[in-house]
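thoughts on these tokens:
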Amino acid sequence: MKIREPVDEKEFIELSYILSKNNPYWVCDLRKNFLKLVSNTHPFWLEAERKLFVCEDNGKIVGRICGINNKRYNQFHNEKGAFFGFFDCINDLNVAQALFYSVEKWAKERGCDFIRGPANPSSNYTWGLLVENFNETNVIMMPYNPPYYIDLIENSGYIKEKDLFAFRWIYNDEIISKMKKIEQKIIEENKNLYFEFINTKKIDLAFNYVKDVYNSAWEKNWGFVPMSEKEIENMASEIKPILKKEYVFFVKDKDKPVAFCFILPDFNKALKKVNGSLNIFNLIPFVYTLFKIKSGRMLALGVIEEYRGKGIEVMIILKAIEIAKKLGWEWGELSWTLEDNLKINKTIEKFGGKIYKKYRIYRKEL
């Protein structure tokens, strides 16, 4: 068994598709998207350093990990930390510990005094380790891992730093009727506020709005790091082909965006059919499943600080529910929220949302 750098990014990413092939719950990203994310040409890496490691045993790749020195994050939080990400491994503690030792040694050489993860590659993408509910597939842009990863990470010296919640919501007429009465009072007290859907023909402008609200709304959240201009541009270009105006909407005060919401159908239902690669053999079942998707995810809900406490979150969730119903969704996931973000968690619960999955961020002092 030996730890080495991969020959290239393709060798690094392939382990996911090998390990997940026979798992009924694990949905992988498309290879081309995964490859783009880990490639050093992705805009994330303009302000972050990475180191890829794989573990080879008898000529076979059995584990992988990425060390991440997120300079933008450390400057924003005044920390000296590193992250580990893109961790995948067979159920072998020796392999896992060898991988973690390698990434920790790399982080120490860069003056880091702790390591946190999993981050793939930051909180603006997918992060966290699934620690509860392994018998349902991961929804769009959320991670999945087998349960034995918990033991591999914890037995490598990592402890819980923070849990993230994913809520399941199912339409309930009685709850919605009650919340609409609350909404009426909110509207009466904030008559200057109105909804505006994204203009898909002016997506660059719309995502500038998203960036401004996102970076303002989350700046005090644990784990947050502002997205760069190039990251926002890249996200806009990736989402544009699948974007409909219903998926992103803003709350505005006159012409000023003060809140936004981002929802997507659970495209993972279709991606499960292709195991990472679209081709002529799986294209028909992929497209067929796209038209049968009956669920979705609320990826983001943000309100800038000076507009909090006005009930705007209630307005947004009700609008998202209205859209979801028109799209024919039978249920939705609201994810993720921090375990100690009591206000938003209680608001989601008032709408009938229930925690059905938990994800964990781990930390180890170096």
About this structure: The mean pLDDT is 92. The CA atoms of residues 5 and 53 lie 5 Å apart.
